[in-house]
């Protein structure tokens, strides 16, 4: 949605900009008046101190990169009465320092390997699921089994329930399909080839053994590794199919890709997604998929020699009716909330159920970009999926309405800010709210110049998030505008701008963060830029090619900076680093059992194994940094899309969630970590999970 909106916005703004070059002077006169800076008069504001912004053509005195003392009062803005934003501003001088690695070995410089999620104490995890279910079946003994956005539920004929989720040992909370084997084992399948079987005592991971696809066709509209079908043939042999139309079966204890001719699939946008699997034998297989545009569903048939397709879904529909005991047991319609409508009692409290619009299958455009999570001063949880806004202020998660209306003109003296990562939200009333960037781009002249710049570097727009905002404790919004400089919008709506270094272009721009001591940190590729008392400094970190995106500062003035895979601590020109994972390759973790050989097709690599046996490109994980926070007691929290980590002033403790992708992470006032994970719902982690951490040991 963000990309679609930006594209439309760029076209709109381009139409508003005069085409003739000689009109620029007239516009700049208006811009200069709009950007005249007035002195900051809000003396009751804060904890965070705003640095003095000075525009001058005189040489800038360069400061050393040591932390400056905490200001005792809020400095005022120095007006720049003749400032005129231009497409190519005069380059701002800056000092440059190459940071040195800190000497000595401690928790920051020794090799670090994250533990797997399964080794944490799951009693410190609380699950906030969806009451959406995807599939159900009755076992021969009458037990009802259901799967969906909550994990797995088993209900006996007497009404007794068992709920299996991350809290009870499964690594994921979402499943799409299930089947009951002739021997009574229950098999469930979900996203990213999650495949588990329950033998009556524990869940066993079978998805880790599925081989990579023989011939993937990722451009197919429905392509994914979500398992939609599980079945057993007349001999009890297991068959599994995912939405990439990889058809797997297990022979002699080994999983193989049985093969499906991908040229039978419709072109992108030309057909529906697969919905079912029925296997009588290796010579009689049927895969069902939805029709498109009002057309009937399609069936693919295999006769042992060739695949054909027609409209005959009888094999699948009769098999589905038998599994669900149609005519003999209570029936349910798969979907959101339908179990509750049928008198079914969920085993989790109603206040923990996430709103329907947050579910990726039901939310409006929620699949277009990751959702954002924020927690306000009252510990109200806010979630938006780039289109709709939700919170739990009323005791349960409620849909507050759309964010996709016409841009607001907020009354900044009355507006309320919600600090969503990278893009704060403005709330004028109970029903008037939207992302700050939409107001900024829609009504701010600086936004017009940014849009022109983005249109010239459209390739950089795809580097999500394409522009990062930061909200400080005094209620001011900060961002760095490429080719413009550092911008801050006060609570009264007055904006100011300090031109920045020409090197800080959109393609290298990372995050921006005002610090408690009055400095401002801006990230780029391999460097941290510091604005201190009007002077820019560039701190270069050797051998680092990632962007610095998150920043934090402790009470001693130490600066923490985070990339997608690492955390740095910068003190007096020296840095320490802890590196958790390597981007787009299998992560390294400690061996689960050093006496057993590893499974090389897992999404992780067990440390100490022969490197020549490991395919680092198979099932890679991609990481996005989501959180960096220094708590009042000095504890440092870090999170990316698969790793949660804590530094307790002595050791780093971290956990890897290889089958869950976090979309956003936040911290409440008591120190609980909250992580929103799309299909897998919302998870709350008590920080005590790190206290019982075993800690990394030598492999």
Can you identify the CATH class of the largest domain?
Mainly Beta
Could you give the count of β-strands? 49
Beta content = 25-35%
CATH topology of the largest domain: Methylamine Dehydrogenase, Chain H
Overall 3D shape? globular
Looking at the overall shape, the CATH architecture of the largest domain is 7 Propeller
Number of helices in the DSSP assignment: 7
- End-to-end separation in angstroms reads 45 Å
Radius of gyration: 28 Å
Helix-strand category? mainly beta
Helical fraction equals: under 10%
Core attributes:
five-stranded mixed sheet, mainly beta, globular, Methylamine Dehydrogenase, Chain H, 2 domains, 49 strands, 699 residues
Q: Which helices and strands, and how do they pair?
A:
Elements: H1 2-16, H2 24-34, E1 94-98, E2 100-101, E3 115-116, E4 125-128, E5 132-138, E6 144-148, E7 151-155, E8 161-164, E9 177-180, E10 186-189, E11 195-198, E12 203-205, E13 227-232, E14 238-242, E15 247-251, E16 254-257, E17 274-281, E18 284-289, E19 298-302, E20 307-310, H3 314-323, E21 335-336, H4 338-341, E22 372-375, E23 381-384, E24 388-391, E25 398-402, E26 416-418, E27 425-427, E28 433-435, H5 436-443, H6 445-456, H7 458-461, E29 469-471, E30 477-481, E31 485-489, E32 495-498, E33 509-514, E34 520-524, E35 527-532, E36 535-540, E37 550-553, E38 559-562, E39 566-571, E40 574-579, E41 588-589, E42 605-606, E43 625-630, E44 636-640, E45 643-647, E46 652-656, E47 664-667, E48 673-676, E49 682-685
Parallel strand pairs: 1-36, 2-40, 3-46, 41-42
Antiparallel strand pairs: 4-49, 5-6, 5-21, 6-7, 7-8, 9-10, 10-11, 11-12, 13-14, 14-15, 15-16, 17-18, 18-19, 19-20, 22-23, 23-24, 24-25, 26-27, 27-28, 29-30, 30-31, 31-32, 33-34, 34-35, 35-36, 37-38, 38-39, 39-40, 43-44, 44-45, 45-46, 47-48, 48-49
